[in-house]
Amino acid sequence: MAIVRKPRGLGGRQPLVRLPRAQNVLNERLRSRINRAPSPLVSRGLPWLSVLLLSLVPFAPIVASAPIMPPLAFMALLAWRMLRPGMLPVWAGAPLGAFDDLYSGQPFGSAVLLWSAAMLVMEIVDVRLRWRGFLQDWALAAALIAGYLVLATLLANATGGRTPLAAILPQLALSLVVHPLVTRGVALLDRLRLVPVSRVRR
Amino acid sequence: MPPPSDRRPGFSRRAQFGIFSGYVAAVLGALVGAILIVIAIVDNGSFAFLRRGADEVAAPVGAAGSVARAGSRGFFQRIGDYFDAADKNAALRREVEIARVQQIRMRALATENHRLKALLGVTDSASPPIATTRMVASTSASTRRFAIIGAGSRQGVEVRMPVRTALGLVGRVLEVGPNTSRVLLVTDSENVVPIRRARDGIAAFSEGQADGRLRLRLINVGVNPLKRGDVFVTSGSGGIYRPGIPVAQVQELTPDGAIARILSDPAASEFVIVDRVFQELPEPPSPAAPAPATAP
Question: What's the pLDDT at B70?
Answer without folding.
Answer: 58
